[in-house]
Amino acid sequence: MRFVLLIAAVATVTACEKPVEQMGYAERVQLVEQIIQRCEALGIPRNSPQMQQCGDAEIEKEVTTRNANVAARRNAGLAMTQASANYNRSMAAQRMNCTHTPGYGGSVTTSCY
Q1: Contact (Cβ atoms closer than 8 angstroms) between residue 28 and residue 81
Q2: Could you give the maximum distance between any two Cα atoms of the chain, in Å?
């Protein structure tokens, strides 16, 4: 059950954002508008030299953050793959002994240990 919840959490995280390099024109325009709004929220007037500096800093931060998120998702996927492989190996290495005891009316009781 824990494994299923972990997969669901990873799937939620991986559905987030894509790298700026993979964005189309419309997506980039929308991102630029968001960055301008962030700078204006800091009190920087539009079309000022400070807006250019703020925009440059915010774009650099956005690209760096998105690339770091991609790397983190990739690493999480690799860790999940490795964990699954380790689990499968440990289960295959365990021997399971089962006994079958005939019961009444054709039933069979199976006990594994």
Answers
A1: no
A2: 89
